[in-house]
Amino acid sequence: VPVSSRVSAKIQQLVNTLKRPKRPPLREFFVDDFEELLEVQQPDPNLPKAEGAQMVAMRGEQLGVVTNWPPSLEAALQRWGTISPKAPCLTTMDTNGKPLYVLTYGKLWSRSVKVAYNLLHKLGTKQEPLVRPGDRVALVFPNNDPGAFMTAFYGCLLAEVVPVPIEVPLTRKDAGSQQIGFLLGSCGVTVALTSDACHKGLPKSPTGEIPQFKGWPKVLWFVPESKHLSKPPRDWFPQIKDANQDTAYIEYKTCKDGGVLGVTVTRTAMLTHCQALTQSCSYTEAETIVNVLDFKKDVGLWHAVLTSVMNMMHIISIPYALMKVNPLSWIQKVCQFKGNPNIPVGSRIKQVRGANF
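RE: above sequence
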């Protein structure tokens, strides 16, 4: 039977390919360089010799010892909320670069107390409350609402509840791909706090209920805004304790393999971190900070939510949508809030950026 030469060539090429080893020999993976490691490298006599005196480490100036640190962040918030209630705490900008609202320390304190009371007494029943001190709750807030996030965060601290800030799930598929449900399930989260606008934007079933996201535990969605909260009794106050080894909040990071790793931060570590940042950045009382980072995690959380409240500083929050349209918007806010040209901008107003820390 006549055979086409072209077909025979292809078959022969396939046979030759199958005969080749799939992996290189084992000896090619290892190089015996033990003898080279034993050899002492002799200095080149032609190299120029070093000149000058030998360098020694210089001892820097000692950090100032501060004796009036607050015993906890909750105590600092109570102090500023009662002594300086009208002092500005947070100014949020809209997408056009105009101030959206100003949150004072008095409002932050009163709203946080209201959130703490409702978390402990209005969820569940009196015999079986849904949230107890030490439980973990999720904070699901968008990147353009730092005021609601700060109120919920400090409300959890006052109630001795551990907040777990996470990103807003846009779709059911998005929630499953981020593996946030594994984190929430490991933390035993049963309640999720969110803003009113974010709650309306979450995906809903035909009956109007928020469906259970893929991989998430079953959670109760709670909007901690004033119109949805009950006013606490006059004789009820949160118990302000000194910083201890109890868990303050839980952050998370995404590993290279896509897994989610939770990071537990104690109340003592949180307070010590704020003290270290205050001294290293030379923060002073009533100073102004421009924040262009995500206020829910990492550097943005450390400076714009924690350290700022400890020092009664004023935060100017620039949303990502405004930075995307106008990358120089933060410079305009520096000139707007500190417009004296005779004062060095760097000494009076600080910008929270990842490259600086």
